[in-house]
Amino acid sequence: MNLHICPDCFSAPGLKRRLQEVRRSLPNGISCDFHSTKKGIPIKLAAAIVDPVFRENFVGGPYDAYYDRYLENVGSDLEDTLLDLTGADDTRVIDGLISELIDADSYWPPDGEEAFYDHEYRYSREQTGLSEHNQLWSAFKTSLMHQRRFFNAEAEDLLVRIFEDVHQQRDMNSSGPVYMISPGAQGSSFVRARVANEPAKRDEIKADLAGKLGPPPERMRKPGRLNPSGISAFYGAYDADTCIAELRPSVGELVALAEFRITEAICVLDTTLFGARPKAYDPFALKARKRAAQWLFMTGFMNEIARPILPDDVHLDYVPTQAVAEFLSNREFAFAGGKRTIDAIIYRSAQHPGGRNIALLGPASVVGPIVETSNSKLAPGEPSIWSDWLTPEAPPRTRISPVPESFRVHRVDGVTFTAPASEVSNSGAEDTE
User: Fold this and answer.
1) Do the domain assignments include residue 380?
2) Which pLDDT tens digit goes with each residue over 251-292?
3) Closest CA to 86 of 31, 36, 14
4) Residue 195 — φ and ψ, nearest 5°?
5) Containing domain of residue 239, as a range?
6) C-alpha to C-alpha distances, 85 to 79, 97, 123, 387, nearest whole angstrom
C-alpha cells in the first residue's frame, strides 16, 4: 500500500513529534493523502514507529465469546486499540496501519509461534512490565543482604539499572527530583537537636553547636538509614516539630536544637517528589515504559527510606538504603551543565506527618564554623619547618555551619500516636517549646 500520511493525521503528541523528525529527513514532492497541503510520509515508516510501542504497551489474544463474557475487561479489537494509541483522525489511516503491521509481523507457525496482530484478537494494557524496577530492587536486596556484602559488582550493576536517568523524571508540574540548592535559597537550612536535660549539657551544646550537634567523630558514628558505621552523614529536618519527633524523646525531657545552613551549593535527590502525580504518560517518548516503571518503584522507595525501623532491626534493614546513598554520592551523572554526584537525599518523615528530612552525605556533611581563609605567606627567605612529605593533610572544608542565634530549648510535654485501625485511636499533647 502506497498510502502517505503526515503528523497531522494523528493527535498523540509523542507520535506527531516523532513523525515530524522523520519527515525532515525525507525529500519534498509527495503530499499527504489526507492533508494535501502537508508533506507526506510513507505509512510504512509510521507503522515502524507504532509497532514497538504497541507491543510494549499491549497484549492480545483470540476472543472467546463464551469465556470472555465472564470477564470484566476483555480488551478492544485491533482497530479501536490503535485508534486509542495514535489518535488517528481517519479510519482509513488506521486501516493502512493495520495492513502494514500485519504484513511486517514476523512469526513462524511450524515452531508454534502465533501472529501478534489479528483482526480477531482483543488487546488490553500490559501491566507486568511496570514491575521491572521492583524486581531489580528485590534482586539487589537479596544479593547485598544475603549473598555478598562487599565488592559486589552484581549489586552495583543492579543499582545502575534502577537509578538510570532518575534525574530526568518529571511530575505533572514538570518539576524534577534532582535539583541544586544554593546557600540562602529555599531548602538551604535545617534543624538539628539533642536531648539535653542537664543545664551543663545545654551550655556545652550552646557553646559548640558545630561539635555537639554535628556528626560525631569517625569511630563514634553509628549506622543510620543512609550511612553505615563510621561513615559521616548529617541528618536534619526542615522544621523543629519534625526534628523533635525524629529524635523520639520521652515526655518531660528537654531538647536543645539549632538551625544549620549550607555554605556551598548542593545537589539533592528529593524522594518526596514521587508522592505527586507523574508527568502524563506518553507511550511514544523514548524509554517511556522504563520511566513509568522507575516512577512506580521510586514511590515505594520513598516510603522505604522513611519507614521507622526498630533498634533491633537496624543492622540488616538499613543495609540496602545505605548502599544506595553511597552509590548515589559517588556516581557522577550529567546535570546542571557538568558532572555531578548526589550530595543529599530529602525524604519524608515517618514520625511527623507532612514533615521532611534531609541527609547530607560524605563531604557535604562536614560541619564547622565559617572560617576565613588566610592568604598570608612565609616571609622572604624564611624556611618552612615542614618538608613536602611531612605537610599535614588539609582538613575537609566546611559545608554546613550553625546559626548561633537560633539555639533554643524545647520541653516535651506530650506525644501523639495512633493505634492500629482496629483499635481506638489515642493522642496526647504534641511537643511544645
Assistant:
1) no
2) 999 999 999 999 999 999 999 999 999 999 999 998 898 999
3) 14
4) -70, 130
5) 133-369+397-411
6) 10, 12, 12, 72
